[in-house]
Amino acid sequence: MHSMVSRYCRFLAALSLGAALSTPAWALDVGGIKLDETVQLASQELKLNGAGVRYKFVFKVYAIGLYLPEKKNQLDAVLALPGPRRLEIVMLRDVSSEDLGKSFMEGLNRSSEPADRTRLLSQTMQFGSMFAMVPSLHTGDILTVDWLPGEGTLCKLNGKQLGERVPDLAFYNALLKIWIGAHPADTQLRAHLLGEVT
Asked: Is the four-CA dihedral 119, 77, 54, 40 of positive or negative sign?
């Protein structure tokens, strides 16, 4: 009887271990979208610093997550981090690429200093031209905007590269400021991305 109980306990332990090993990494639910706690980029593990939903009026437009090599809750600390970074945007409604591109450009103009806008003009134009490559983004589409040290800013839509890499780190930092700068698109979203609100 004892050996039967012992075998049964070992069987349950094996099942529990198997379940634990097969369970996916923890994910955060953001507007009904599951964002992974960690991602691999440029052979490095990035942590989900924060995430939230961008609203336009009362409508959900997209869920967005900010991935960094280590968690930071201040803009200067984020911008000073070495290594790769990722913005992951998951569409929660259909949006024309023209409208999304326009939102990016407005955000850059709002969050950047005039001298920076002038210096980064050619890169901003290059980035803006990427949106002409696709007519629209649909609910569930995933847009990643990655910083890869030594390579530049790389955009992918559903895993497919859009345009060429944009080389300057200052440009990627300008993009980040759209959401976490002094004049963000949404102050509540900024707090979520900086991990101030969970």
From this structure: positive
